[in-house]
Amino acid sequence: MGYKRSRGLDTPLAEHWDGLSWSRVEIPGIGPTVSGRFADVAVVSSGDIWLAGYVTKGKRSSGVLLHWNGGSWTFTPPIAFPLEDRNYGSAYHALLAIAHDDVWAVANAYTRSAAPLVAAHWDGVSWRAFKLPVEKFVSTSEVNELAAAGRDDVWAVGDVYAGGGDGWDIAVHWNGKNWKGVSTATADSGCLNEPTLTGVAAVSQMNVWTVGHDNDCNLFVEHWNGHRWRIGSRRGIPHRAELVDLDLQSGTLWAFGTRRNNRYGAVSPLVARWTGSQWLPLPTIRSPGGVRGLSKAEVIAPTHIWAIAFGASGAETIVRYGCS
Question: Residue 182's CB: how many other CB atoms inside 10 A?
Answer without folding.
Answer: 15
